[in-house]
# Entry
Amino acid sequence: MAKDFIRERQFEMKLMEIYHQHPYLSDEISMADFIKLFPITYKNGRIVRLDKPVGFELDRQIYLEVLVAFRGFFY
# Structure
């Protein structure tokens, strides 16, 4: 699978939406850093599933929302 820049951008916009749905996140992390927590990576031409961020303690509900958005755009 080649890189799909449109889906990557749509996923990034969904991350922005999730960030704005949880106002307390802005007290803990900037939006740009929040988006950087979930990099899109490819291995052998296939997209790699997201892992839970290591350097930031993320609420389980928010992480599940991110995973649902990820699966919606890439699977």
